[in-house]
Write the structure tokens for this entry.
Amino acid sequence: MIQNNKFEVVPIDRVAVEERVGRLNKRSIKKESKVQALKLALSMVDLTTLEGKDSEGKVRQLCQKAKSPHPSMPDIPSVAAVCVYPNMVRIAKESLRGTKINVASVASAFPSGMAPLPIRIEDTKYAVEEGADEVDMVITRGAFLEGEYNFVFDEIAAIKEACGDAHLKVILETGELHTYENVRLASDIAMEAGADFIKTSTGKISPAATQPVTLVMLEAIRDFYYKTDKMVGMKPAGGIRTAKQAIQYLVLVKETLGAAWLNNEYFRFGASSLANDLLMQIVKQQTGHYQGPDYFSID
Amino acid sequence: MSDRIEVQKTYKTYVGGSFPRSESGHYYKVFDSEGDFLANACRCTRKDFRDAVLAARAAFKGWSSRTSYNKGQILYRIGEMMENRRDQFVKELGQIGFTKEEANADINASIDRLIYYAGWTDKYQQVFGSVNPVASAHFNFSILEPTGVVSVLAPENSPLLGLVSVIAPIIAGGNTCVVHASEQYPLPSISFAEVLNSSDVPGGVVNILTGIRSELVEHFSSHMDVNSILYTDKLDKETKIKIDELSSNNIKRVVKKNISDWYETDSASPYFVVDFQETKTTWHPVGF
């Protein structure tokens, strides 16, 4: 039920979306282009730690990894950002001083979003004051599924305002939105409300990012760009563990949005274990030998 | 009624508890002892090997933490299941030149070997572990722990008994393995995989690939997530050096055995289990 005509439901052809993803997954990326894709993917990673047991030491260690993912190979790029909880932002900011790596913080009652709006705004402001360059918020899925689209629009706009200069990534939590139409609609609402990035998942819900959902979101970004000339970024998060998957995502981006989006200003991977698989594949390409996790840092 | 067309068996590989074809889609021809075409076998590539190592690594934690008693039960079970498939093995060994008596002897010896190592699963630690005398207030003891993932170049000329004789001690010690079956006679080895698959052996503990050995040796020796490599055939000097050099990259334990007759008593021994074990010594403070 649509209570407000401002947001139009765009019908999505489920079969066509999944077939297109299947077809693009067959692209063969080898040799030099593979190395380039692996390095590009690594430079797009938001190295993430979002656990209740996170400590200052763990965050420092993660920042070290962000700066220098594999010390024995200095030509490997650093990652795009480190993503932490608000109370770890200061530590991350300190550790990353002097680098171009951003600090992203989940805020506004992550991962559920189930708190009153003033508290969520306070949470966001705190993260930004601590030094976060990017804020990852999550929409209220309950309200969205009830058809309260204006509520969702308003909360995103309010948090965008609280972000100030910090970039806002809006998490749709697509695993709870059930249909591609809902994903598309939530993407449109988020972009209209001022999102700089739209992001699939918190990583706390299964299924997290999937390629068909990502394709639907990328198409929403493309249509929004045609309409407004504004480039919105995309961040699939959760469940992306292998270099092979990462390259498949890059193909989706290239084919849907073009090369302008193929950099870490407009595309990110929210992941923690992906970085190591990318590193192993890069080293494999250089040495010709398959690598094992024993020779890479754990986090 | 037309004559019935016989259903030919497709021989595939055994990886992670299922029977995939080679990702390459390539095959090579296998011939019987008369030189007649017998079947197509998968010509595995480095990517099939990579996938098999992933499966073996994933299975290692679970298999190595099974109790020794349970590992013994499962090895015994493999022997039982092999007994059930005797006819199939007699037929396949017959195709490559074994007489019926020879085939039965090969199967008997293979089953006996499984039972032999089933017995050793909860004994080798007692025989080879030790309490060590030290001149300080410590209780000092050494225990054996499995090495990890082992890549195996199975005996070329003994596709059943030889294969069983190299796999059994490795898994009896809690390791997992990726095996390259005999290049010329791969069919009994793949049938042995069917036995494994119906014997409570968790998927990924034993992975069996077929293909051209000279194409695979490099990857069997160089993979950084493989902890040990075994071969029992006489290899040319060049290949041996290659295996040694590539294995040195991650200090793989290279185990070489020169066994041509798998009926010899020396070809089965608890030392074969210990070859794929690491010794951990603990210094435990004690008060007087």
